[in-house]
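Please predict the structure of the following assembly.
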Amino acid sequence: MDAPAAGPAEPAAPRALMAPATVLARCATGIGGLDDVLGGGLPRGNMILVAGSVGTGKTTLCLEFLVRGAERGERSLFLSVTEASQKLIQNLSTFEFFRPDLVSDGSLVFVDLPALYDKLGLEHEEMTSDEIDILIRTIRDLVQTLGVKRLVLDSLTSVCYRIRRDEAIRDFMLRLGQTLNQLGCTSLLVSEIGPTEGRYSMHGVEEAIVDGVVLLWNTRRQGDILRVLQVVKMRGTSHSRAQYVIELTPIGLLMAPHLKGGRPEGA
Amino acid sequence: MADIGERLRGLPGGSAAALKLDPREYADHYFAVLNGTLRDLGSETDAHVIYITVTNPASFVWSLAQALDVPASRISFVDVISHIIMNYSNPLPNATYVETPRALEEIMLRVDYLLRKYPHPRSVVVVDSLNALAIHNPRELLSEFFHIFLTNLKSRNVLTLILVTSDEEAGELERMLNLLVDETVDVGGGR
């Protein structure tokens, strides 16, 4: 039997205006408002810089990202350089979104990096290239062995403080990013910057390597301080570049549009 | 004076209304609005009222609400004035405090917080009042705030009521508000 003659070509299904040709898999942060800003979440496997000065909410944002992930069955790892894990967990327990069982059942894992340095024998004040290799391999092994899908490094600044040279930092970040991406692990790297800094990291090379930058800062309006968040870069997705005022509430981070009242920036 | 409570109960979720108070009968109208918003709307099954206090501290409104037998579980306050008048020593358990009426984004965030924390089929947000917010904020900022705030609450099916006392100063803001609300309820009677 002959095959039925082909009729007129079906018109292509309408696509959303400005929709990208390919949509990358998302890692929903679970943070109120942020996923809307990102069009559904962070592109899975991306390495993101969370940059801001002290008291802007970087660590809390990162912790919520991990808790929300662990709740969804994605094992989450917090690599802490600046604060002891016990203290972090203690602070976290003041939030209603935190569930201690996620820590006890191993869904949310905390590792103190200074203890790891000691265990690995990384003793030089400035890491040698061999030591950097060991550090990357150790992180890779942790992620692979535990099946980690979300990782936070708090802070990248403290790690880079021991790497120091721009070329070595660039190399460390490129290799870390590739490793985590291959393992399907989405990561947030905390970058500590001064309140008036014109860049997103201590050395200025970090923001060029990462896939995205989320910037947090304090701003003043008539003497009152507001915490502001802006996604300034995110590879693999279109995203809002608007500024949002944030609030760290017991149920998690919330966002509202930053009002301008018709005034241009800096007015 | 017409039964304001009955009129407010007839307003659907997702709508916004300006409640117009006459300055010559302010005390009567203000009490009628409190009665209508706190007692009548607050007593509806599954209703939850989020009352934003800028004119008076939450403790003042709460004492009136208690006199009207409104249960604490039916009302939450976003108190925007107690901090700035240094009257913050005895915070209410059902209130959240914003440091200044100039932090308009904080007001949006606190309301968002309460809506998420206490989800109810019938949520009502009361802004008391446009005039008090206008004392602390420039007109353009306030216009932007109300546009975003009301649009957001409408999309979440929240009924929003904004108290406005008509006077010459408020004229321009009242015209702005008229563009954003679905209806204006004259507390003294008529629509």
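Chain A touches chain B through 20 residues (CB under 8 Å). Residues 4 and 10 of chain A are 15 Å apart (CA to CA).
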